[in-house]
Every structure is written in structure tokens, then in C-alpha cells.
Automatic annotation (TrEMBL):
GO terms for cellular component: membrane. The lineage of its organism: Eukaryota, Fungi, Dikarya, Ascomycota, Pezizomycotina. Keywords: Membrane, Transmembrane, Transmembrane helix. Pfam families: CorA. This is Putative-like mg2+ transporter family protein. It is a multi-pass membrane protein.
Amino acid sequence: MKDVPKDEYSVDVDMAPFESFQLDIQQNLINPTANLLDMVYKRVAIRDARYSLQLNMSLWRLSWVTFIFLPLTFVATLFGMNVDLLSENPSLKWYFVIAVPMMVVVVLSLFLFKNAGLGRKANFAPRGKSPEHMV
């Protein structure tokens, strides 16, 4: 091989345009994509939180239904037992004599509980408004 001057076959390239292109790719493609991914994760978290709130409200309603009907179930179970205490087979009127006052006590305690502020009150503010503005 013959000695060739280095300038004839060497490539002197100015790297400034490539670095500028790399910076443009970073700013215009990679950063917005990372921000979009973060936004998708946040939207999924918000959707899951809303679903969780709906599920909590459903379970809260189920708890109140149980609170109301559990005493009546207890009375029905008591009258359905085969024990010596009820061996004379009391008439049906005794079920209502016990069940109606018990139901009144349960409903009154429900209203007292809710009106005393001890019940759960869902106070969701619309987007952009604080709960203090809710009436």
C-alpha cells in the first residue's frame, strides 16, 4: 500500500448538526412520550379510584340493608327453633309483636345515627371546586 496523505481518505465531519438532531429527537419525541406514559398511568389510577369509590358506596348500602334486616332475621330464626322454650308453638301474632317494635327501634336508631352526623356522607366536589363551596 502506498503512503496516502491522511486528508484524502479521512472524513472530517462536523458533529454539530448530528448533536442538534439528537437534541431535537430528545425534545420532540422522547420527552413527550415519557410525559404521555406518565399521564396514562395517572388516568388509570384515577379510573381505579373512581371504581373503588363506587364499590365502597355499594358495600356501604349493603351494610345498611344488613343493619335493618338482621334483627328481623334473628326473630325469625328464634321462632323457627325447636326448643323447649317454644314447645307450645306460639301463634303468628307473637312474631309481629316482637318484630314490629324491633324494626321500629332499628329504624329510629338509623335515623338518629344519620341525623347526628355519625353516618357517612359522601361529599364529592366537582372538578375545579373545593368541598367548601358545596352546599
